[in-house]
């Protein structure tokens, strides 16, 4: 959501920042799971419940956020809703350039052919990218971070 609602010039920063906080959360989880902190048998319920706090905050706050402007414009075709969401997120000002960028992206997506999974696997242009994604995903699953 943050990557989608951020202005184009900040989108890369917002997406990389979220990855940093994912990694930071995993590290904090591993550290707090040590026996000396919350990893003892008596404190395990508190450790397991601690992940519910951010989920609860998100559940309470997300209804007050507007839908993402690209979603409103590209999928729903609601230009006024898009402008209203942009003003709510980014403040008053001239945002026509961002709306034009979203419209260009919509036109580009309209001319792009959607591939099925089988077509994607058979396409030689995507073969190396597909290999890399499969290898990275498999190594992440096998490294043990999920078990920790």
UniProtKB/TrEMBL annotation:
Main location: membrane
A Gene Ontology molecular function term of the record: D-glucose transmembrane transporter activity
Listed GO biological process terms: D-glucose import; dehydroascorbic acid transport
Keyword Magnesium appears in the UniProt entry: no
Cell compartment(s), UniProt: Membrane
Alphabetized Pfam families for the sequence: Sugar_tr
Gene3D superfamilies in the record: MFS general substrate transporter like domains
Every Major facilitator superfamily (MFS) profile domain range: 1-148
Keywords from the named record: Membrane, Transmembrane, Transmembrane helix
SUPFAM superfamilies: MFS general substrate transporter
InterPro entries: GLUT, MFS_dom, MFS_sugar_transport-like, MFS_trans_sf
Membrane topology: Multi-pass membrane protein
CC per GO annotation: plasma membrane
Protein name: GTR5 protein
Annotated source species: Sylvia borin
């Amino acid at each position: 959501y943050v990557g989608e609602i951020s202005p184009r010039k900040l989108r890369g920063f917002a997406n990389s920042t979220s990855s940093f906080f994912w990694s930071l959360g995993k590290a904090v989880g591993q550290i707090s799971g040590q026996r000396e902190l919350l990893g003892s048998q008596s404190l395990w319920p508190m450790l397991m419940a601690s992940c519910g706090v951010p989920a609860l905050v998100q559940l309470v706050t997300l209804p007050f956020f507007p839908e993402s402007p690209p979603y409103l414009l590209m999928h729903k075709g609601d230009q006024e809703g898009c402008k209203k969401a942009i003003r709510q997120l980014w403040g008053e000002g001239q945002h026509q350039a961002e709306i034009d960028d979203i419209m260009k992206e919509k036109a580009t997506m309209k001319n792009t052919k959607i591939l099925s999974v089988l077509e994607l696997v058979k396409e030689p242009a995507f073969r190396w990218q597909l290999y890399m994604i499969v290898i990275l995903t498999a190594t992440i699953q096998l490294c043990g971070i999920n078990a920790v």
